[in-house]
Write a structure and sequence with these properties.
- The chain is of the alpha+beta class and about 110 residues long.
- It has a domain of about 70 residues.
- The protein is built from two helices and ten strands, in the order ββαββββαββββ.
- It has a three-stranded antiparallel β-sheet, covered by helices on one side. A three-stranded antiparallel β-sheet has the order 3-4-5.
- The protein starts with a strand and ends in a 17-residue tail after the last strand.
- The relative contact order is 0.15.
């Protein structure tokens, strides 16, 4: 979920994440988690992300926030990837760290 601020409408949050606000807490399917204090129709995304274990990262340059999916406690603690070294298309060694300071999209694929 891409955000411009750390506040969101309840209905929009539910529509985009599947988590709904019920009297018993934040719920998705059969799972309910105690909800942070929510008054009105706007929610504090930071508090909800913390409660649900959802990663929340900020792109200061673009002025945007990204709320990732619930990760079951397996979320990355940083948006900085570890250094990887792999052969490029020509067989030469390529180090991910050579792109440090630039935004990089990593796409992984497996045949199984």
């Amino acid at each position: 979920m891409i955000l411009e601020t750390l506040e969101a409408e309840r209905a929009e949050f539910t529509r985009r994440t599947g988590w709904s606000f019920r009297p018993e807490g934040l719920c998705k399917g059969d799972v309910c988690v105690p909800a942070p204090d929510v008054a009105g129709e706007r929610i504090d995304v930071r508090a909800v992300a913390e409660r649900l274990g959802m990663p929340l990262v900020h792109d200061e340059e673009a002025g945007l926030w990204c709320l990732g999916p619930e990760a079951g406690g397996r979320a990355l603690t940083t948006v900085q990837a570890p250094d990887l070294t792999l052969p490029d298309a020509g067989g030469a060694e390529f180090r991910l760290s050579s792109l440090r300071g630039r935004k990089v999209l990593l796409v992984a694929w497996a045949s199984w």
